[in-house]
Backbone:
């Protein structure tokens, strides 16, 4: 064995850099977070050769005083926390006090700053193995500039892992985009090789913020997104969720922020997946931009050096809150008067329609606000939620919420004010209008206030049948079917404990499970729709969900899958001739059905062709 020695400061910092400084984009992330923590509202970023040659971040924040500059470049030096108690409730993005020291150890870094209350600006640079800091006077307006040249010049092994200039710059853009979405008040300019690539203006009004989101996520997202605002106790969720029709093949449009910090988290991912379960085709991913705000004490941000992960003190409560809020928002998407807004299925929305998208978005919001006072459906419920905390009853266990969401909106037609309103200006024209013909045995054509409505008859009927089956099933038929021979399942002790603890939940879902020993369970009955062979894997999955997330919707999800298959087979097939009356019945049913806008596979069930679009075909100026 060799002798033990203390690492020199540069080497210690280089080792720490291994965790936080992976590539130019991670440098940018750390520098931007520092600028935000310093209260800046203008940030200029200059990048050369994908950040490998140069990264420069300039801000107009509080600046760093002469006496603090040396410390700013030292490891374990921070102005953001002083005690362990502070760590429990961190409200800043940084707090580990290692970013600048780490970056300085693997690049040529200069830090120039002018503090608010000081005349003179100073530039700091650290040198040698000891990283001794040298200060020289400089010219700089209030704020800070950090310049990072030749990243990894002294750590060739790391440099080898860098990709092409283009790839590295792409990652930088991603970091900037994530930040632009969460900090609306900050204006950001990003230049690459002396060319301005993004110039993002501060956004204060709702409309400006929507434009900013459209700019970052694409106008198509904004035109097919529903706003979410939901509060419960100390939790607040806001942002936008994409309609199921806007699902993606990759999970690449998912932005989630916890107290302003971009986070990847499996509790969150699971809650979102559950909320969309019913309306997305297998293998598709929802799109969303969501902000969760909660008491800093309720979340531990010190679980990962790059702070991409967090740990919630009560992850079950967070999970349930997210699931319920998003599930409601998604269920609220159904046809109504402002139909074209919520339901323009237009994946290739041309650029430059952002204004229109914002208008549609506004309409969508209004329409949701006025859809049906019936009180038993998620549509109006979603809106009523805004600005007030939910009652405990509303937030009861998922079972009851699930049941409530799936009650048929039987009184919707007579009571929907949007319809009433519509009847005033144009008597008796329902949102999806009246059927005029059937096309090719596949589509129903109908005329409404806006022009032509085209309905995919099979998809629409399938959704209606499915929702109906679910209501029937969950209201009455979650009956347990006793097994002739009880099935025994070998589990771990903790799983057996968990099954015992959640006995009530299982029996609500039609299972009856007894503990047969320290590590074995006995299933005595299963829900009537399930095959016995499906029971065991399902129980196992549910137990693992319960242990991991504190809740599970697997049983319902599985039953829903069976119902969906039944619905698909029970729905009108293509090429069946429908009478005009039959078509009208279908249209009215669609208006009443939750999630009527998508079929069970997340495809749209109908689309609006507006009169001006038809006029355009005939070059008719209106
Ligand atoms: P941390 O952000 O975890 O505190 P850093 O190494 O990133 O650690 O920064 C060290 C300290 O330098 C910060 O705590 C802060 O006081 C100061 N600092 C860094 N960047 C800036 C900036 N852009 N504006 C003002 N102060 C800064
Ligand atoms: Mg920092």
Residues:
């Amino acid at each position: 064995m060799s002798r033990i020695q203390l690492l020199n400061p540069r080497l210690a910092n280089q080792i720490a850099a291994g965790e936080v400084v992976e590539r130019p984009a991670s440098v940018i992330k750390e520098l931007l977070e520092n600028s935000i923590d310093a209260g800046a509202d203008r940030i200029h970023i200059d990048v050369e050769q994908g950040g490998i040659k140069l990264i420069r971040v300039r801000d107009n924040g509080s600046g760093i005083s002469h006496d603090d500059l040396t410390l700013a470049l030292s490891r374990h030096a921070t102005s953001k926390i002083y005690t362990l108690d502070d760590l429990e409730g961190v409200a800043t993005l940084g707090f580990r006090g290692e970013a600048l020291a780490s970056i300085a150890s693997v690049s040529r870094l200069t830090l120039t700053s002018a503090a608010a209350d000081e005349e003179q600006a100073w530039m700091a640079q650290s040198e040698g193995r000891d990283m001794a800091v040298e200060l020289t006077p400089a010219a700089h307006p209030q704020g800070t500039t950090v310049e990072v040249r030749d990243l990894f010049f002294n750590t060739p092994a790391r440099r080898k892992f860098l990709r092409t200039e283009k790839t590295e710059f792409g990652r930088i853009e991603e970091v900037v985009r994530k930040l632009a979405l969460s900090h609306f008040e900050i204006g950001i300019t990003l230049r690459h090789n002396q060319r301005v690539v993004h110039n993002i203006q501060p956004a204060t009004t709702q409309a400006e913020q929507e434009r900013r989101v459209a700019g970052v996520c694409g106008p198509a997202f904004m035109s097919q997104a529903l706003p979410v605002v939901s509060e419960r106790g100390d939790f607040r969720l806001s942002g936008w969720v994409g309609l199921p029709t806007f699902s993606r093949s990759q999970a690449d449009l998912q932005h989630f922020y916890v107290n302003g910090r971009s986070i990847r988290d499996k509790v969150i991912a699971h809650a979102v997946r559950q909320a969309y379960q019913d309306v997305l085709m297998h293998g598709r991913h929802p799109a969303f931009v969501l902000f969760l705000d909660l008491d800093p004490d309720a979340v531990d941000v010190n679980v990962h050096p790059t702070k991409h992960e967090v740990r919630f003190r009560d992850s079950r409560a967070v999970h349930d809150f997210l699931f319920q809020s998003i599930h409601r928002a998604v269920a609220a998407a159904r046809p109504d008067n402002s139909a074209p807004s919520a339901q323009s299925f237009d994946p290739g929305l041309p650029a430059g329609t952002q204004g229109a998208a914002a208008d549609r978005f506004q309409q969508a919001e209004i329409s949701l606000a006025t859809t049906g006072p019936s009180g038993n459906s998620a549509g109006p419920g979603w809106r009523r939620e805004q600005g007030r905390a939910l009652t405990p009853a509303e937030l009861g266990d998922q079972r009851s919420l699930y049941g409530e969401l799936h009650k048929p909106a039987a009184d919707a037609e007579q009571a929907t004010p949007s319809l009433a309103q519509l009847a005033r200006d144009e008597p008796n024209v329902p949102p999806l209008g009246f059927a005029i013909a059937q096309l090719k045995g596949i589509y129903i054509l109908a005329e409404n206030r806006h022009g032509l409505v085209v309905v995919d008859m099979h998809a629409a009927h399938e959704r209606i049948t499915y929702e109906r089956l679910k209501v029937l099933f969950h209201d009455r038929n979650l009956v347990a079917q006793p097994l002739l021979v009880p099935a025994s399942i070998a589990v771990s002790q903790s799983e057996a404990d968990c099954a015992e603890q959640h006995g009530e939940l299982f029996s609500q879902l039609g299972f009856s499970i007894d503990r047969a020993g320290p590590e074995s369970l006995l299933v005595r009955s299963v829900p009537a729709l399930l095959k016995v062979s499906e029971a065991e894997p399902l129980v196992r999955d549910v137990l693992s969900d319960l242990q991991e997330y504190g809740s599970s919707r697997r049983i319902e999800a599985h039953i829903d899958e069976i119902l969906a298959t039944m619905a698909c087979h029970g729905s009108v097939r293509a090429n069946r001739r429908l009478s005009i009356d039959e078509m009208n019945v279908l249209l009215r049913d669609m208006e009443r059905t939750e999630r009527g806008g998508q079929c069970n596979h997340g495809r749209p069930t109908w689309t609006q062709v507006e009169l001006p679009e038809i006029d355009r075909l005939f070059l008719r100026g209106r």
User: Anything to note?
Assistant: The first strand starts at residue 42 and ends at 48. The first helix runs from residue 9 to 20. The chain has three domains: 9-200, 206-331, 354-472+568-617.
